[in-house]
């Protein structure tokens, strides 16, 4: 076991001061970090325990949105009346993730920071991994890449982001609130996770020492006509092969507004803006849904073992929109 320093922060100011130290990592529920620590992939010199911080409230925002404290558990967020009423898409996505036991432990802030479940990343015995050891290579490119990215990948990495929650937040244009010794800032969820490029070891745009304090989910007028559809290898406790978070506003058979995000296809939750643009103002018809889904996957670059994801993603987009728009 690798030795590390442990501090339990009692307020946010203390947490960000401790978190600014070299080698420090924040720990909330620990459901991902401790797994990676035990297998030697994460080697924090110092853990700053933020689980006792008063950041677990869920409250209404004046504009009709919801602010979810970063330390709220996934279970608390999914079952909270405000979340279920104002952003059911988010509640659905949260309940599609992990197991009940994990959702009870995992925090909303930590959910955003989950690392990929690429087998070559989580098991060093399987081969080289640029995300684990920068510059070492990517065993997945010529290896077994059934679960990997079809959009936004690079020569260095084709891993996918594992969070369900983040896909819904991406569709809903949520904002991540962070705090450091320099003060506060807001990061749109769409800009929070990175594409791999040639630095796949950097998952997010968080700066060193920054602590997630809350997530603001704005009011989406048509947010109740939504659906999160997740396709996975087994019915529970499995990561998405492909998932889609969709909300759509249909009036007199025409699409007035729509938002679509995909999970399981890229290094970050993937917003399908071309598909949204193609549907806006069009008839809510099967043909138009299929055309929009085809556009969403037009730039797909599948690997040897994951070609199935392209057609699967098209179908999941159509199905999710049909359910959200009450066509199913
Ligand atoms: Fe590592 Fe990314 Fe390649 Fe997986 S896909 S082995 S995480 S570099």
TrEMBL record:
GO terms for molecular function: FAD binding; oxidoreductase activity. InterPro entries: CO_DH_flav_C (IPR005107), CO_DH_flav_C_dom_sf (IPR036683), Diverse_Substr_Oxidored (IPR051312), FAD-bd_PCMH (IPR016166), FAD-bd_PCMH-like_sf (IPR036318), FAD-bd_PCMH_sub1 (IPR016167), FAD-bd_PCMH_sub2 (IPR016169), Mopterin_DH_FAD-bd (IPR002346). Keywords: FAD, Flavoprotein. The keyword Acetylation does not apply. Pfam families: CO_deh_flav_C, FAD_binding_5. The keyword Oxidoreductase does not apply. Residues 1-222 form the FAD-binding PCMH-type domain. This is Xanthine dehydrogenase family protein subunit M. It comes from Noviherbaspirillum galbum.
């Amino acid at each position: 076991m690798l030795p590390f320093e442990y501090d339990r922060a009692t307020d946010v100011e203390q947490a960000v001061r401790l978190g600014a130290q070299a080698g420090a990592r924040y720990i909330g529920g620990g459901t991902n970090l401790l797994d990676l620590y035990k297998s030697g992939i994460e080697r924090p010199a110092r853990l700053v325990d933020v689980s006792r911080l008063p950041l677990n409230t869920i409250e209404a925002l004046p504009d009709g949105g919801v602010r979810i404290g970063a330390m709220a558990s996934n279970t608390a967020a999914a079952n909270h009346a405000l979340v279920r009423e104002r952003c059911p898409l988010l509640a659905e996505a949260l309940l599609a993730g992990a197991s009940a036991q994990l959702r009870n432990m995992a925090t909303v802030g930590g959910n955003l920071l989950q690392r990929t479940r690429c087998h070559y990343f989580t098991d060093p015995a399987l081969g080289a991994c640029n995300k684990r050891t920068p510059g070492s290579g990517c065993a997945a490119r010529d290896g077994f890449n059934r679960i990997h990215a079809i959009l936004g990948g690079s020569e260095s990495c084709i891993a996918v982001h594992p969070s369900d929650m983040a896909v819904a937040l991406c569709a809903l244009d949520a904002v991540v609130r962070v705090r450091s010794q320099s003060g506060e800032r807001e990061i749109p969820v769409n800009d929070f996770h990175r594409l791999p490029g040639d630095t796949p070891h950097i998952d997010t745009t968080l700066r060193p020492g920054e602590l997630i304090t809350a997530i603001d989910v704005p009011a989406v007028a048509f947010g109740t006509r939504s659906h999160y559809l997740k396709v996975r290898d087994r019915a529970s406790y499995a990561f998405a092969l492909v998932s889609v978070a969709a909300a759509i506003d249909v009036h007199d058979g025409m699409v007035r507004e729509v938002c679509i995000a995909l999970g399981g296809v890229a290094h970050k939750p993937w917003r399908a803006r071309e598909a949204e643009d193609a549907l806006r103002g069009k008839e809510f018809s099967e043909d138009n849904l299929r055309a929009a889904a085809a556009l969403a996957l037009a730039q797909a670059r599948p690997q040897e073992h994951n070609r199935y994801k392209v057609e699967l993603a098209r179908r999941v987009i159509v199905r999710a929109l049909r359910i959200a728009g009450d066509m199913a």
